[in-house]
Amino acid sequence: MQAKIFHIVPTVFHSPSKLPSYLHQPSLPRKLPRAISISSPVNDNHHVPGPLTIPDKDESMAAFWDYQFLFISQRSETSEPITLPVVEGTIPPDFPSGTYYLTGPGLFVDDHGSTVHPLDGHGYLRAFSIDGVPKEVKFTAKYIKTEAQVEEHDPVTGSWRFTHRGPFSVLKGGKKLGNVKVMKNVANTSVLKWGGKLLCLWEGGDPYQIESETLDTVGSFNVINESLPSAEKRGPGDLFDVAARLLKPVLHGVFKMPPKRLLSHYKLDAQRNRLLAVTCNAEDMLLPRSNFTFYELDSNFNLLQKQEFNIPDHLMIHDWAFTDTYYILFGNRIKLDIIGSMTAVCGLSPMISALSVNPSKSTSPIYLLPRFPSEKSAGQRDWRVPVEAPSRKWLLHVGNAFEIKDIDGNSMIQIQACACSYQWFNFQKLFDNLVWKQDIIGKADN
């Protein structure tokens, strides 16, 4: 079975070497600020000076500067909400009041010579509280006090020392050989407000609960209640089951990896008022198979159902989708990299370099996994057989997925997502500290 693909953007992108010269890296000033600081309130209204601006000669230069400022460490937090000044325009009178929460990496360089990849940057939570009546926006920002953040930051001196290598970094000023602090939960990926709780998620561990008004960290929060048995769909045991049993105590006991890693992307089923989440098994990163467990919870975090699927393929999943009938997984194929594994264990390369993309097939598998196996519509096809998209793409994020029926009553699934080629999504280049640090951080943060 094949999927039909529709492109709304070109599928061929020029490599950096073929880009026009004006889009290449412009020359930089000799010195950039080491960190952007939040100004302290200067009066009772807590207004701050206008935004930092850089004179731009053309759009490419402006875009370059915008990109540079994404990777400048932020060492300040707000002590109380700050009213943001109006730069242009106004808040529409019918704009709904509320708060927009945004988490992301905030610190990239410590005070002892180490630089981490942005994916390992400590979670920096920002809140934009919008009030349509006085037409004001108040800004609050604080670091999420994860276990790693508390260990690496000295609140008295304000200094930082990276001790966790994380999955994507190599520490220059910290311990390399024998550093097993790989699972660096930085809560920097997504924000969820559900069941009266504000949670910040990371790819591979429990989320952290945050006090929604002050942004103070409450502590880690276990979303999944394993009180229900799985509706498992497993084949007979094999050698991989034996390997999994051997790997689990090592990954958990030595590297502190949880047996099931909660993915950072969740979904909300508004019609059923459910929170949908998915976990994968820790050992599956090293084995040519993938186990995914899907959970559906009510507004009080009570577990309503869970299902486990064992897929005989080595996959890396970051984002996924769902419809009324299916969970949808997009198969990004990976494989174990022997040389990368050796350098990663020695601390010479990030742990992620133990894996590499697997371009052995020309198609992209899409797995349609039944949400409700007892329903007739879910049992019409074997979920173990993927739908093959006719091009090899690495899926990054999903916008939406939904089912429609044609005039004959046949179901069709439409998926809106963004993807890139396997050639562009290269672990060794994406997570090579020397490459991205020198090109971006080294010029913008030192």
Automatic annotation (TrEMBL):
A GO biological-process term: carotene catabolic process
Q: Does the keyword Repeat apply?
A: no
| Necessary cofactors | Fe(2+)
The protein's matches in InterPro entries, at most eight in alphabetical order, are given as:
Carotenoid_Oase
Q: How does the cofactor attach, per the note?
A: Binds 1 Fe(2+) ion per subunit.
Q: One GO molecular-function annotation for this sequence?
A: metal ion binding
Residue positions annotated to bind Fe cation are: H318, H397
Any one annotated GO CC term: chloroplast stroma
Keyword list, A-Z: Dioxygenase, Iron, Metal-binding, Oxidoreductase
Q: Which residues cross the membrane?
A: none
The similarity annotation says: Belongs to the carotenoid oxygenase family.
Q: Protein name, please?
A: Carotenoid cleavage dioxygenase 7
